[in-house]
Design goal:
It is a single chain. This protein folds into 3 domains: 76 residues, Urease, subunit C, domain 1 (Roll); 298 residues, Metal-dependent hydrolases (TIM Barrel, Alpha-Beta Barrel), CATH 3.20.20; 114 residues, Diaminopimelate Epimerase, Chain A, domain 1 (Roll), CATH 3.10.310. It is an alpha/beta fold. It has a 7-stranded parallel sheet.
Length: 558
């Protein structure tokens, strides 16, 4: 009797224990919800209060959370997944690409020139024309273009066209003239000027040589940059993105992010990586580095706690640094965009200041340099849970694959790079090195996670193309049959984790996002089909019906 009396007293002191629960603002029922939460992997209903999830479970339970002011949404059997997070993207790059000549998918150099000539009719004489997306590996010639045809078609406007990967540009004669480029211009460290037989610049500038041209381009105004960012955010939401990892931004751009977030106009959770400051002295003067790591600013819109470095260039432009020469260009082993000593210095600084260090590395030499720098820094300054990252981790020596797990380094990869590159990647590196390329399963088998991204605008924004590539290793046409090196595929569960909870973990955000879990932000996406069940052939056609950020709908399909 005494025990019963004590229990009754406790209930009186805590009337909410068995009493009416506080009503939710939003309740979604009758859905197929993949939570990416191991404690309850699937559900049919979820409830939202404020900007947080308060429940995920059955319809019956969710109805207990409805009140007079609760909005109830019948999902009509549609599929819901957590808000998608792109682990490697370029937000401003996307925004500016939406306002430039789109060269993606061009099947020839003539088509590139045609698109630019059409654009030139809409601008004033002398105005700079910029574009992005050309890829010589899609052309019959499979060779870098020269400026001649472009210069003849557009003689009065300076033109600068970025390759699809952003690691080479094509400039016309007017642009090179304004930049002061001549045959006497020397290749900068970590860069290459492609030249004709006479030694004159052909128009293509690779990696650090791009700066020779870009320094002559008038910078965009703050207002223009703001509009580009807003356009990019809307594009992200359209494809189900509620978060991105923004791979390399300068303080000026980040300050615009802050202005937009402060005003409530930033409908995205952005994990910002600071651009490489260039030297220790400049790093110590950088506004955001001196401020220290910042997380969840402005209602969880901005994180500034990482730095993006470059080890090498890209495979498509043969700037990726290889341990041995390119199989299809034996005199070339690629380029080092940064010296190993600089990466090691920044790794030391990151460990001491609490900043994550993320190194772009494509080639096997580029990856080894990054891993060596991390290993040396961790010996000098041991730190648990540092979550240092290698961005792309594209071609890795088989000897180095186990080192990611041994060092606690995260390989941040992009599945659609594999489907874009598979047409020519083996020609670049040969049949042996290709075994360590785009090697998701080999890395996963060591115990690491593989957060997935698109590297947009290098690849398309759509993260569902990432999901398709991860589980099929095929392009949209289903080529090749069975997948390219199919032993490296991800399972569908792994692919879903790779665009949700794994990027959240890679950004120290797993406690607030990445799964449909009570207490986390109410970020989720409604899809038109069940990506965990439909045939592989249907995955590529999956569409986003609506995107929700913090319990507010930020995109609705028409």
């Amino acid at each position: 009797m005494k025990r019963l009396t004590t229990y009754a007293t406790l209930l009186l002191l805590a009337p909410g224990v068995l009493g009416a629960q506080r009503a939710a603002d939003l309740v979604f029922t009758n859905g197929r919800i993949y939570t990416v939460d191991a404690t309850r992997p699937t559900a049919t209903a979820l409830a939202v209060r404020g900007d947080r999830i308060v429940f995920a479970g059955s319809d019956v339970e969710a109805r207990a959370l409805t009140g007079a002011a609760t909005r109830v949404v019948d999902l009509q059997g549609k599929t819901v997944i957590p808000g998608i997070i792109d682990a490697h993207a370029h937000l401003l790059g996307l925004g500016t690409s939406l306002r430039r000549v789109n060269l993606a998918g061009t099947g020839s150099y003539a088509e590139v020139v045609s698109r630019v000539a059409a654009w030139a009719k809409t601008v004033k004489p002398g105005e700079w024309i910029q574009g992005r997306g050309w890829d010589q590996t899609r052309w019959a010639t499979n060779a870098f273009p020269t400026h001649d045809e472009l210069s003849r078609a557009i003689p009065n406007n300076p033109v600068v066209l970025s390759r699809v990967d952003g690691h080479a540009v094509l400039a016309n004669a007017k642009a090179m003239e304004l930049a002061g480029i001549t045959a006497r211009t020397t290749d900068p460290a970590g860069g290459r000027i492609i030249r004709d037989a006479s030694g004159a610049p052909s128009g293509v500038f690779v990696d650090n040589a791009e700066e020779l041209i870009s320094k002559a381009i008038p910078p965009a105004s703050r207002a223009e940059t703001r509009l580009a960012i807003l356009a990019a955010i809307a594009e992200c939401n359209r494809y189900g993105l509620t978060g991105i990892h923004d791979a390399g931004q300068d303080p000026g751009t980040i300050s615009i992010y802050e202005d937009l977030a402060r005003a409530g106009d930033f409908n995205l959770r952005n994990y910002v990586m600071l651009s490489d400051p260039g030297s220790r002295e400049r790093a110590l003067r950088n506004t955001y580095l001196t401020r220290g790591p910042q997380s969840g600013l402005y209602g969880g819109r901005l994180w500034v706690r990482a730095v993006k470095l470059y080890s090498d260039g890209a495979l498509g432009s043969r700037g990726a640094a290889l341990l041995a020469p390119y199989s299809d260009e034996p005199a070339n082993s690629g380029l080092l965009v940064s010296q190993p000593e600089h990466i090691a210095m920044m790794a030391d600084l990151g460990l001491r200041r609490g900043f994550q260090i993320n190194v772009h590395a494509i080639g096997d030499r580029g990856n080894r340099i990054a891993l060596d720098a991390f290993e040396a820094a961790l010996r000098r300054t041991p730190r648990a849970d540092h979550r240092f990252r290698v961005e792309h981790a594209q071609v890795i020596s088989l000897d180095d694959i186990p080192r990611f797990a041994l060092l606690g380094v995260i390989p941040s990869m992009q599945a659609t790079h594999q489907t874009s590159d598979m047409r020519w990647a083996e020609a670049r590196v040969g049949p042996q090195r290709i075994r360590g390329a785009y090697a998701w399963r080999a890395l996963l088998s060591t115990g690491v996670i593989v957060p997935n991204g698109t590297d947009f605008p290098v690849e398309e924004v759509n993260p569902l193309l990432t999901f398709h590539a991860a589980v099929t290793r095929q392009d949209a046409a289903g080529t090749p049959p069975g997948g390219w090196y199919p032993e490296q595929k991800m399972t569908r569960q792994e692919a879903l984790q790779s665009i949700t909870i794994w990027p959240a973990y890679a950004g120290f955000q797993e406690s607030v996002m990445g799964s449909i879990t009570p207490g986390k932000y109410a970020d989720f996406v409604v899809l038109d089909r069940d990506i965990m069940r439909v045939p592989d052939s249907e995955l590529h056609a999956t569409r986003v019906l609506s995107t929700w950020l913090g319990g507010k709908r930020v995109y609705q399909s028409q």
